[in-house]
Specification:
Elements lengths: L1 H5 L3 H15 L4 H16 L4 H7 L7 H8 L5 H4 L7 H16 L6 H10 L2 H10 L6 H28 L1 H9 L10 H20 L9 H19 L2 H22 L2 H21 L1 H18 L7 H17 L11 H12 L11 H26 L7 H16 L6 H24 L1
Helix pairs in contact: 2-3, 2-10, 3-9, 4-5, 7-9, 7-19, 9-21, 10-12, 10-13, 11-16, 12-13, 12-14, 12-20, 14-15, 14-20, 15-16, 17-19, 20-21
Amino acid sequence: MLERAFKITRKEWLIFFCIATVVCLLVSKFALTIALIGILAAALLDFNVKKNYNNLSSTKWPAPVKGFLSIWNADVFKILPQFYRHKGYFALFLIFIIVIISGLWSADLGYWWERVRIKLNFLAVPLGFALLPGLKAKEFTGILYVLLGLMFVICLGISIHYALNFEELTLASKQGRTLPTPIHHIRFSLILVFSILSGIYLFYKNYFIKYKWERFILLGITIFLFGFMHLLAVRSGLLALYAALFVGVFHQVFLSKKYLLGILALGFIFALPFLAYKNIPSFYEKINYTFYNLEQFQKGEIEDHSDAERLVSYEAGWNIAKENLLLGVGFGDLKNKTELYYKNNYPNLPVKLPHNQFLLYFLGSGIFGLLGFIACYLTPLFYKNQYKNTLFLAFYVIATISLLFENTLETAIGSAFFIFFCCLVQSYLEGEREKQ
C-alpha cells in the first residue's frame, strides 16, 4: 500500500488535499491547517524517493544529503524563482508580506506573530498552486460536487434540528441569535453562498458525473440550499448572496445579450427577499432585529446591541487610523491601540477590532498598506481578464461583501475560505488556458 502511495502523482495529491480542505473547512481548524500545508507539500515533494535516490547514485554527495535531495521535486528549484511571474497567485502572497513588514513598527511582537500565523496560508496555498499544473474541468467540478454534497448533508441536518425545536429557535432569532452551525455562522454562511453559486454554475455548464439527470438533482440541492440560506438568516451572507446573484446575472446578460430574460431574472431576484420576509420566520425576525438595533444606536443605547457595537468598531478604527495615516500602528499593535481607544471613549463596551478588513489594513499598515492591499486583492480578478469567468466574479462579490462587514482574513476559517477558493478557481482558469 505504501509503495502504491508513492506512485500517486503530485496532481492527484493536490486534488486529494483540495477535497480535504473543503471537508476540513466545516469540521476542524487543526485538520484544515494540515490540508492547506498538504497543497504546498504536493508541489514541493516527490514521493518517488527510491527512483530519485538511485538517480543521485553517481554523485559524490554523502548518503544523508542524497536522501534529503531525493524527497524534493527536482523542478521546484527551477520554477520557484519564477513565482513572481504567476501574478494572480503572487499578489495574494504579497497580502501576507504587508503584515510581515508592519512588524518593523509593531511594539507587541507576540500579537504581530499571531496575525502572521493566521495568514501563513497566504504563503503556502498560492505557492502550492503556482508550482503545479492548472486543474482540468473534470477535476475542478469534482471538487465543487464534494462541496455541494457536503453542504447539503449539513444543512439538511440543521433543518431537521430546526423543525424539531421550532419554537425555541424562532425565539432565539428574535433575540438576534442564529441557528447552530458546525463553524461560526458568518463563515458558514460564506461557504454556503459559494456552494449555492457553485450549484448554479454546475447546472448552467451541464456538468454531470455519469448521468444527465444528475443535473436536476444538483438543481434541487441548490434550490434547497438557497431556501436554507434564508432560514439561517445571516445578514452579511444574504447580502453577499443577492449581490453575487445580481452581478452574476448582469454579467451573463451582458455576455449573451439576452436583455429581456435578464430583466425578468433580475426582477425575480429582487422579489425573493420580500417573499422570504413574509414567509420565513427566522428571516422575518432577523430583519426586524436589525431595525431595532439601528433605532437603539440612534438613541445612544449601544451596550448589548451587536450592530451598534459594530458601528463603534468602525469609529474606533477610523479615528485611530487618522492619527497614524502613513504607516498605521503596525499589525502587532492593533489590539493595544484599540483597547486604549475603548478605555478612553467606551469603557463599558467589549473591545472589537474594526469589522471591516479594508479599514483594518488602513489601521495596521497606513494608507500605503491599504492601497497595496487593495491592489493585491484585486489583481487575481483582473489578471488575464479572469473576471470574465462568472463564478470567479461572483466569488469576488461574496468576498468583498464579507470584507466590508467583517475582518474575515483575521480568522483561520475566513482566511482559508478566501485564499483556497480564490486559488482553486484560478487553477481551473489556468488549466483552461493551457488547453488553448
